[in-house]
């Protein structure tokens, strides 16, 4: 342009100027590139340094892992069957650093763990402490969890196929499903019923409230159902009442059509009627399609408003998973006897067309002396407001809430005010009971031995005696079935999994501050850990210490047997440590008169504060005669090295059994949960190691005699009591005989290996002696360990405990 305009600039000057301009730009760009290059080289250098650091850490961790895997504790645990598999499974998901982080978090939440760890370190040594700690961390990682959301079966159907229900002449249950349009909901509801219900004793009644969609032709797709059609719409309530008149079943189950029932939902509801007294209505656990909880029964407040208990929460939480009384159950899924429904006149017409009719029905039923029970195992998915718009539903609720309040004003005056802080007391005030918190190591699975069979019975008795029982497993919160479900179905609240254990106990206590009348703690380590927390958050509760066994006595005997005899000072210190824990309780429960005497002797406690609760056993003699039996039986769990059971079996096999076999050719059966290679190595042609056995009936009925050769132990020999209750005579050590205070009219008693072998041979071969001992031991169990005697004793303990609060209270008779 400059040249065209006749500028005096020469072309060379112009080109030079252009060159200089581009050169300056190039230099600037080059500097920018160099700066970027330097920045990335710096970052690359830092990353290389980080990688090198990680490599070094990998080398260190690899060495540590190598040392760990070559160590004796690791080799021991590699031998354990079930636990080994759990650890290997967890190793795929949890790394070493994860365990360390979890441990740090645990210590932050529970500083007392440091003290416990140090005490174990000084008393047990590094290897034993490491073993226990590692096992505990793996147990936390491998906690068995429920996950209802993963178990829900929800049908999403595009093509409708024919479903054919079988006609039933005399149905046990009439399922009444009120519908108005929404054929898609109704079809899926029926599909779920068809898949998840025993069809042999039900009839399906579709209560069609003048539908205008394909519901009018529902029989084209659903066969074998009864359809009751209204010529004009009656509304939800009147539709239900009308359809109920066509029901032929003993029970009526009202079920919304916007639901999908889950496996065995109806069976679990019927089970409640068959297992409980004075049941009027049973309701289901209602969940949303996303797996969150809609309600676990419902609460009625003093102003007539209601609250679905647990709405929006995790349906697998312990508080939503045990059978309990509720204010009312939602009409979404509700089971009632037809006769009782008719007796109260059905749903009250004042609530037409819908809402509050279910709450009103439940109050009417309770007024007649019946119970309204929630069954958590009956799970129903509900698409809320499937039959009404949300806006219309709210209007109907507000209208009928006033009707409800006016009708039940006197009853509502005794209810709590609507407040989230009142929820816990609201669900517990329906059937007022004294409340007890029971703490032990784990859910009391009977096959574990170690006092858990006794605890299993104790917890059940507490519930039967009219207390509201919460069970909290402190050191092992794993789920043990069928024991968890059995307790929950009895109305016992059991914590488990990620909601229990040492790390959550303080939070649990904070959330339930002041809630319990009694706290019962079993075993010294649980008492030591929880005492301060209990006294802070349950300061007005009566504290019971259940001395499942005097552990110090066992440790003293063990040390003597193993050749590590304790000094007098060590003995005194060991006893005093346990005695100090015992003294902090208001009442002490022991397992035998012998241990009660030891508590009096060492703790100097008033005898009025020490009671005995032993192990209940029902006498059920096995049938086979002497000649039909063979073999020698030992029953016990083998969970840890150095346990009384391990020592007893190794001692018997090494020092006694060879002499016995010479004269009897009797096989030895070692039965019980086993994690020890030392026991597995005993297995052979004549020694049979079975591992865990759920039912001992076959062994009690086929083996000729029972042995209890323990050299150190505490408490009472529960398996011996069970064996005697089944009529299998026994040979026992002098220690075991002293625990039960028995003589040789009950069982043969041996003081050393020679006499144990002699008495075993004698009993095995002597038919007359065998029958004599069988008769005597059965009578001994009947007089001392019958459930009725033990339940009465537990009632006495509870009455004395509650009397300490100057509260007149006597536990209701069963």
Which descriptors apply to this entry?
single chain; 814 residues; Spore Coat Polysaccharide Biosynthesis Protein SpsA, Chain A; Rossmann fold; 4 domains; seven-stranded parallel beta sheet; 27 strands; disordered C terminus
Could you explain the architecture of this structure?
Strand 10 and strand 11 (306-308) form a beta hairpin. Strands 2, 3, 5, 6, 7, 8, 9, 12, 13 and 14 form a 10-stranded mixed β-sheet that branches. A 7-stranded parallel β-sheet has the order 17-16-15-18-19-20-21, sandwiched between helices. Mean pLDDT is 85; it is low at 1-9, 81-95, 138-146 and 807-814. It is built from 31 helices and 27 strands. It has 4 domains: 72-141; 163-428, Spore Coat Polysaccharide Biosynthesis Protein SpsA, Chain A, CATH 3.90.550.10; 435-612, Glycogen Phosphorylase B (Rossmann fold, 3-Layer(aba) Sandwich), CATH 3.40.50.2000; 626-785, Rossmann fold. It is globular. It has 814 residues and is an alpha/beta fold. The N and C termini lie far apart (113 Å).
Task: Summarize it.
47% of the residues lie in helices and 16% in strands.
- Summed up, the domain count is 4
Classified in CATH, the superfamily of the largest domain is Spore Coat Polysaccharide Biosynthesis Protein SpsA, Chain A
* Structural class by helix and strand composition: alpha/beta
- Tell me the quaternary state: single chain
Topology:
Blueprint: H1 11-70, H2 72-78, H3 81-91, H4 96-109, H5 112-124, H6 126-141, H7 148-151, E1 163-164, E2 173-179, H8 183-196, E3 202-208, E4 222-223, E5 226-229, H9 236-244, E6 251-255, E7 259-261, H10 265-275, E8 279-287, E9 293-295, E10 298-300, E11 306-308, E12 324-325, E13 333-337, H11 338-343, H12 357-367, E14 371-382, H13 390-407, H14 409-412, H15 423-428, E15 435-442, H16 452-464, E16 468-476, H17 483-489, E17 493-494, H18 502-511, E18 518-522, H19 524-537, E19 542-547, H20 551-561, H21 568-583, E20 587-590, H22 593-603, E21 610-612, E22 632-635, H23 644-655, H24 657-664, E23 668-671, H25 677-680, E24 687-691, H26 697-702, E25 705-708, H27 718-725, E26 730-733, H28 734-740, E27 748-750, H29 753-765, H30 767-784, H31 787-803
Helix pairs in contact: 5-6, 18-19, 20-21, 24-29
